[in-house]
What does this fold into?
Amino acid sequence: MQESSATPTTATGTPDTPPPAADSSAQPSRNGDLAPPTVSVRDLHKIYRSAGHDVHALRGVSLDIRRGSFTAIMGASGSGKSTLLHLLGGLAPPTSGTLLVEGRNLTQMSDGERTIFRRRRIGVIFQQYNLLPTLTARENVAMPMLIDGKPLEQFRNRVDELLTLVHLQHRLDHRPDALSGGEQQRVAIARALMNDPAIVLADEPTGNLDSKQAHEVWRLLQRIARENGRTIVMVTHEAHGAAFADEVIVVKDGQVVGTINAEGLGDAALVATGYQKLAG
It folds into this structure.
């Protein structure tokens, strides 16, 4: 891997509409076909008001995330990486700019529309797992459908398939207190996939895990992207985790300062060196 692979990200394309599949701005998918990006961000700004002062959390971020890719976002505390993830998840609107997910413009949605879109088209994996302690693994995975008022029996096969995907077919009826931290996070990953999301967002998903469990989760996310065609975006401060991603987006002072082509090789030294050059 050449260190020249760490190159600045530049904004291309039209901000208001996603590029068609045959357009020159389309990006090659893993199988070589041209496809529009799942996420397209143009000139995104986010300004918070704090103690009478404006805090510029994001300053003109532009990026594309291709379908079926595993992308990591790295940056120091306060760099804007978590703010960017929150905007991608529709948890808050940007101050200005354009954000398309599956061609839908989240910046033009009302709070209610973003909530519905997030529930139905975005999966989220939290650092704290956020499992309900009184529910079994199967019931926790089914939660997105239960919230929509649909009975578990209608989706039992789908739930069991997802728990098999994350290697928990033998723990279907166990509650969180009977599961290890790594197993709980795998339940949370299965839950994030339940609504067949356009994109899965992972916010420091291994922050509470030991190194062995963390490695298993990174490998699992990589496999889900590669074998199941899911688009996964993970915020992390760990080069070891980011090294399993296809691409690492480096954020500093609210701006994308470059990318590292990690290719999922697990080469933490490559990522650490590239990160230091871009953000150090």
User: Anything to note?
Assistant: The mean pLDDT is 87.
